[in-house]
TrEMBL record:
Keyword S-adenosyl-L-methionine recorded: yes
Native source organism of the sequence: Mesorhizobium hungaricum
Enzyme class label: transferase
Record InterPro entries: DNA_methylase_N6_adenine_CS, HemK-like, N5-glutamine_MTase, PrmC_N, RF_methyltr_PrmC, SAM-dependent_MTases_sf, Small_mtfrase_dom
GO biological process: methylation
Protein name per its UniProtKB record: Release factor glutamine methyltransferase
Binding site for S-adenosyl-L-methionine: G130, T131, G132, T133, G134, D153, W182, N196
Listed GO MF terms: nucleic acid binding; peptide chain release factor N(5)-glutamine methyltransferase activity
Stated role: Methylates the class 1 translation termination release factors RF1/PrfA and RF2/PrfB on the glutamine residue of the universally conserved GGQ motif.
Gene name for this UniProt entry: prmC
Residues spanning the signal sequence: none
Positions with a binding annotation for substrate: N196, P197, P198, Y199
Occurrences of domain Methyltransferase small (ranges): 112-204
Record's keyword annotation contains S-adenosyl-L-methionine: yes
């Protein structure tokens, strides 16, 4: 493919797939399709029904540059600049984690509990600690029109992206972004505290896949010496920010169930539900002060 020349859509798709496959990229066919569709502003249906349509040289060059970035290891959604989460399109930026499908397990775990709270009290106040793109808070707000949420993060870049996502999704009126070191700048009490904190041990970071290690922000990954630093803070300080009958729900690493359950138990929060992700790994723990949700 000569990036200086126009070509047909079908030829561009074939060449993109060939390049990623020969570079040994996992999921080459899928990534090639996403990149070509995005940079040519075409759909899958158009690639099938109209493979001979011409793609201009500018779009060919943009697709070519995107494929080169993918070949050197940049994840496909970082190149696109957005990722789908719980049916929402979320913009990414340098200091936001790419939201993962595993985290949808957390959203699905708390949604019925939030619906019950709304039924009882007419509203639900949510705190999302380490909000990143706003993924968890915004997915919950999109599903429950009566809920309001505060998204807290230590990163200004992440907070700006979360606000942009809230605006794009029409959720800005019910979403507040707050710069805070965990609970440091948080005031008031909440019905639901959710968090997908950094939970990888510092030593493990260098063993992660290149796509994660080199492109997800370190601050979103590094959970300290044993990966549990953030859980200790959240467990210790949740009590003073939780309304009576409230719940705390966290995402965990697949081997952290016992440790995190113990940390919250010692802080006065027995576990009420433990859930696995679609891969069958322990992924979400829900806690309540009275052991009932
Ligand atoms: C694993 S990411 C989760 C992002 C998002 N909630 C999601 O699930 O996609 C953890 C987030 O915690 C934030 N974070 C790290 N340390 C923090 C701290 N001390 N206080 C508040 N947020 C922090 C990071 O900036 C990052 O956005």
């Amino acid at each position: 493919m000569d990036p200086a020349l126009s070509t047909t859509l079908g030829a561009l798709h074939r060449e993109a797939r060939r390049r990623l496959e020969s570079a040994g990229i996992d999921g080459a066919a899928f990534d090639a399709r996403l990149l070509v569709e995005h940079f040519t502003a075409t759909t899958r249906a158009e690639a099938i029904s109209d493979p001979d349509r011409m793609v201009d040289a500018q779009a060919v060059a943009a697709a070519d540059a995107a494929l080169t970035r993918r070949i050197v290891g940049e994840p496909v959604h970082r190149i696109l600049g957005f990722r789908e989460f719980h049916g929402l399109r979320l913009n990414l930026s340098a200091e936001t984690l790419e939201p993962r499908p595993d985290t949808e397990t957390l959203v699905d775990a708390v949604l019925p509990l939030i619906a019950q709270m709304v039924e009882r009290h007419g509203t639900c106040r949510i705190l999302d600690l380490g909000t990143g793109t706003g993924a968890i808070a915004l997915a919950l707000l999109a599903a429950v029109p009566q809920a309001v949420a505060v998204g807290a993060d230590i990163s200004d870049d992440a907070l700006a992206t979360a606000l942009r996502n809230a605006r794009d999704l029409g959720l800005l009126e019910r979403f507040t972004a707050t710069k805070s070191d965990w609970f440091g700048a948080i005031s008031g009490q909440f019905d639901v505290i959710v968090s997908n904190p950094p939970y990888i041990s510092s030593a493990e970071i260098k063993t992660l896949q290149k796509e994660v290690r080199d492109f997800d922000p370190l601050r979103a990954l590094d959970g300290g010496a044993d990966g549990l630093d953030a859980y200790r803070v959240i467990a210790r300080e949740s009590a003073s920010h939780l309304k009576a009958g409230g719940i705390v729900a966290v995402e965990i690493g697949s081997s952290q169930n016992t440790d995190v359950t113990g940390i919250f138990h010692d802080a006065g929060f027995p576990v009420v539900t433990a859930l696995r992700d679609l891969g069958g790994n322990d992924r979400v723990l829900v806690f309540a002060r009275d052991g009932k949700a």
